[in-house]
Structure formats: structure tokens, C-alpha cells
Design goal:
Helix content is 71%, strand content 1%. It has 542 residues and is mainly α.
């Protein structure tokens, strides 16, 4: 049993504690430790990804207790992929936070950032439903703190709304887990898969209710219509590096749906038939449509990007709802793409907020921003990727989704809404880009002709101060990742095909978890509890 699997959870947890206890009043030391920690996390994630690349499923038993009684972490293709995406995103966002000074605008940014990473990594790696809930709570508690980082009434109000919606989701999650445990007597995912498959379909009302509740929980996390109201305000008001890191957090909801509904409630399972065909696909398509309408109607660039996140989640879940191998491939490719594209856009929004003197994120007339050609070029590339125009990864992702939907009964709806949504998004981003970069030159010319007619001096004052380079390096790196995802689309989809094949054949996952030897629980007579046969030899060794 390798201990590397637990490293993505333990490393940020220990680092967060060290940052609080040792380096609380030393921002330079916090920065060095935090960057070193995320770099080490990336190294570990690469190692786990390489280990799982050939299909190996590794299991880690906490305390060496055997499943289903002990807590297990499982590293398969899907979990290591999501861990790697998070580990790539984390240092780039952190560099932006350091370069822009966001980490100095409030207390405990770096410890909260590490706790957030711990929660996200744990959610992707856990093989236990209750600990998925625990890691959800860890990442949410950290995100509450990051959400209101640097203070402000608007941020506090958005944070309160964010807390309330997520508390609702946590409550539903507890109800779902209680129902599942009452029906099956276990919360280990592999053991659940075995026991749910053995349930009598005529006596399965409870487990169907639990499956629906779980889907609602993941829908809240993924901001699926009509449970999306918390996202635009929360993401738009959050500090830019926090919103960029949140780009992976919404994917936790999609990950939960893919994991549970391929392993525990697979499409062929009789007792949960109809859950996806009935309403997940329509909900995903409505979410996509609502997100793109929000993009078109936004008068602030931060809310425009937040609505684009909702639209991208609708796009992603429309591929998941097909629930075929090709649908999962398309969903995972789009998840990687939208994570990097969303993060780049949120960071660009912050650059524009700082440099558009007097108007900030409002789509109003202003003079050109400092470093305008570079910022405009980056916005142009990020917008192309987000709207799905060729040749970047958004276009490839949409082609994969449309191809996967060909076997769906709602194929024409999927194609129609995806294409119409893309067109609306292009118009929305084009309007914003024109207002911020093209119109600004006209404003500058008008000012030169008649400076006294301007609405206000602050609104037209150019910022000539030198701008830090590190934030632009972070944004440029995210855009480079989008280009790389496009160039290497073939190898990436090849790996994702293997991932989907592994997901739709869960027996190796179940066998790896339940046959792993370890310590067992003995009953009052000293006999081993069930699932302990394989553990005897190992137990003697302890």
C-alpha cells in the first residue's frame, strides 16, 4: 500500500496548520511555503496520474482498517485526473494572488487556500460517501473564509447567500446518506455498489429517494437550474483568485454525479431507471440556455463570466446526461477546458477591474487600459475558448458533446441549444470586448477633442503606473494550457476513452477496494466480521 495517495490531502492540511501557527505574521514566509507546497502537490499529482495511467487502481486504507469499515482513498484514472487538474490550477492562481497582492488584503489567505485544496483533493480521492460529505464541508468552510476575504458589504452579502445555499445542499446530503445507510448498512462506495445491485426492485423506494437526493446535492454544487441562483453573485463578488479556484469547485458536483451514477447507480440498474432520462438532460439544457442568456444580458464583466460558468456547467452536464462512454469523454474534456478558461477569465476580470479607472467591471465607456494590447489579446483568446469558437479547446469540447448526443432521444434539442448558446455567447463576449477595448479608443479620441465634456476626471484618467508582470504570467500560463489541450486533443481523448471504459466497468474498482487486506473488526466471540477473509494474513503481521 503506497502512502502517496494520501499526500494530496495531508500535505495541504499540514501546510495550512504550519502557516497559521508559525508564519501567521510573516507574509513573505507564507508565500514561499505556499508556493513550495503547491509545487510539491503538483509533483505528487503527476506521480499518481502516471501510476493510474495504465488502469491501475490503487487503494489507501487509513489506519490500515479494511473496507467497508475503514476509510479508504482510491486513485483510479478519474480521481487522479481531477487531482492533476486541481494541482495544475492551484500554483497558477496562487502566483496571481501573490503578484496582484490579493493575499495581503485580508488575513489567513494562504492557510485558507491550503485548506480549500485539501477539501477538493479529498473529495476527488475518497472512496467513502460519508467522507465525501466531510471533504465537501472542509472545502466549503474554507471557501466561506476565502469568499469574504478582504471584506466589504457586497462581498459579505454574497458570502452569506453562498453559505445559505450550500448549507441547504449539506442538509440534503445528510438526508441522502442517512437514507442510504438505512437501506444498505454501508457508505463505502464499492460496498454500496454491491449491496444496491442486490436490492429487491419491489422494495427499493428508499434507495430511489436517496439517489434523487444525491442528484439534487450534486446539482446544487454544480449550479444546475433552478439551483443556480447562488453562483452569479457569489463568483462575481469573490476575490479574483478565489473565483478562479472556484472554477474547479463546481466540477466537484459533476464529478460526484459521474462517480456515483457509474459506480453505485449505473445506467443499467433497474431500481434507478429513468432518473437521468427524465430530468437531468432537460435541466442541463435549461442551465446552458440560462447561462448564455445571462452572458448576453450582463452589464458587468464579472457577472458575465459568472453566467458563462453556469452555461459551461449546463454544457458539461448535457454530455453527462447522455450517460454513454462517449458522453463521459466529452464531459471530462469539457470539464478540463472550462476549468482553465474560467480561471483565466476571472483573473482577467480582476486586471480590468484595477486598470479601468472609474468604471471598474461595469461595461461603460472608459479610456484604454494600461497594457491594453496584451490584456485585449488575452481576453480575445479566453473568450474564443469559452464561447467554443475554433480553433481552441472549447470548439473541440463542443464537437465531442454534439457527437456524443447523436444517440440521445433529445439530440436535436442538444444540438440546437448548444449551437444557439454558442452564438449568444459570442454576441455577449463580443459586446463586452468591443465596449472595453474598441470603444475605449473612440472615448480617448473624443476626450482629446473636447476634454471638458467628459463625465468625470476619474473616469478618463489614464493609469501610467507600471503593472506587475506576475499576474499576466499566471493568466498567460492558463491560456497556454488551453492551447496545449487543443494541440494534444488526440492523446487527451485517448486517455479519457480509457477512463470512461474503466468507469463503465466498475468490477475492478469494487474488487480493489473490498479485497484489499487490512485490519478487521471482530465481534463479541472474537470472530472476524464480514469482508475479512482476505485480511487474516495481514492482520497476523500486525
Amino acid at each position: 500500500m503506497t502512502h502517496w495517495i494520501v499526500a494530496p490531502v495531508v500535505l495541504p492540511a499540514m501546510l495550512a496548520a504550519i502557516l497559521v501557527l508559525v508564519a501567521r505574521f510573516h507574509i513573505s514566509l507564507q508565500r514561499v511555503l505556499s508556493v513550495a507546497g503547491t509545487a510539491a502537490l503538483l509533483g505528487v499529482a503527476l506521480g499518481l496520474f502516471w501510476q493510474a495511467y495504465d488502469g491501475t487502481i490503487s487503494v489507501y486504507q487509513l489506519g490500515h482498517w479494511q473496507a467497508p469499515f475503514g476509510i479508504v482513498l482510491v486513485a483510479d484514472r478519474l480521481s487522479t485526473l481531477m487531482v492533476l487538474v486541481t494541482a495544475i490550477l492551484a500554483p497558477l492562481v496562487l502566483l496571481y494572488a501573490i503578484g496582484s497582492g490579493w493575499d495581503t488584503r485580508g488575513q489567513h489567505f494562504h492557510p485558507l487556500y491550503q485548506f480549500q485544496l485539501m477539501g477538493i483533493m479529498g473529495a476527488f480521492l475518497t472512496g467513502d460517501a460519508f467522507n465525501l460529505f466531510v471533504f465537501f464541508e472542509v472545502l466549503l468552510i474554507a471557501s466561506y473564509g476565502l469568499m469574504i476575504h478582504a471584506g466589504g458589504k457586497r462581498r459579505l452579502r454574497a458570502g452569506t447567500q453562498y453559505v445559505l445555499y450550500n448549507l441547504l445542499g449539506s442538509t440534503l446530503f445528510l438526508f441522502a446518506l442517512g437514507t442510504i445507510y438505512a437501506q444498505t448498512g454501508t457508505l463505502n462506495m464499492a460496498d454500496l455498489a454491491v449491496r444496491v445491485a442486490a436490492l429487491d426492485p419491489s422494495n427499493s423506494a428508499g434507495i430511489r429517494v436517496a439517489a434523487v437526493l444525491l442528484l439534487l446535492v450534486f446539482a446544487v454544487k454544480a449550479a444546475v437550474l433552478p439551483l443556480h441562483f447562488w453562483l452569479p453573485g457569489s463568483y462575481a463578488e469573490a476575490p479574483a483568485p478565489v473565483a478562479a479556484l472556484f472554477a474547479i469547485m463546481t466540477k466537484v458536483g459533476a464529478y460526484g454525479i459521474i462517480r456515483f451514477y457509474t459506480l453505485v447507480f449505473p445506467p443499467e440498474l433497474e431500481i434507478t431507471q429513468g432518473l437521468f432520462d427524465t430530468w437531468l438532460m432537460p435541466a442541463a439544457l435549461l442551465t446552458l440556455a440560462m447561462g448564455m442568456i445571462g452572458v448576453l444580458g450582463s452589464y458587468r464583466i464579472d457577472r458575465l463570466v459568472a453566467f458563462a460558468v453556469i452555461g459551461s456547467m449546463g454544457m458539461l452536464l448535457s454530455a453527462v446526461a447522455v450517460f454513454t462512454a462517449s458522453g463521459i469523454v466529452a464531459a471530462l474534456y469539457y470539464a478540463i477546458h472550462s476549468t482553465f478558461a474560467t480561471a483565466a477569465l476571472f483573473l482577467l476580470v480582476d486586471v480590468l477591474r484595477d486598470r479601468r479607472t472609474g468604471v471598474g467591471v461595469w461595461l461603460r465607456d472608459a479610456v484604454p487600459v494600461a497594457g491594453g494590447p496584451l490584456v485585449a489579446g488575452m481576453f480575445f483568446v479566453a473568450a474564443i475558448a469559452m464561447t467554443g469558437l475554433p480553433p481552441l479547446s472549447g470548439f473541440v469540447g463542443k464537437l465531442l458533446i454534439m457527437d456524443a448526443a447523436r444517440g440521445s432521444a433529445l439530440v436535436w434539442w442538444v444540438w440546437g441549444i448548444v449551437l444557439a448558446g454558442s452564438l449568444v455567447a459570442v454576441v455577449g463576449f463580443g459586446r463586452a470586448g468591443s465596449q472595453m477595448f474598441w470603444r475605449s479608443h473612440q472615448v480617448a479620441a473624443e476626450r482629446e477633442e473636447n476634454p471638458e465634456s467628459e463625465a468625470g476626471e476619474a473616469n478618463t484618467k489614464e493609469n501610467d503606473a507600471p503593472e506587475p508582470a506576475l499576474p499576466m504570467v499566471a493568466i498567460g500560463s492558463l491560456l497556454a494550457l488551453l492551447v496545449a489541450l487543443t494541440v494534444f486533443a488526440g492523446p487527451v481523448t485517448g486517455f479519457l476513452n480509457a477512463t470512461a471504459t474503466q468507469l463503465f466497468n466498475p468490477q475492478p474498482y469494487i474488487a480493489a477496494v473490498l479485497s484489499m487486506p487490512g485490519k478487521v473488526i471482530k465481534d463479541d466471540h472474537g470472530d472476524d466480521a464480514p469482508h475479512d477473509a482476505a485480511a487474516t494474513d495481514t492482520e497476523e503481521g500486525h
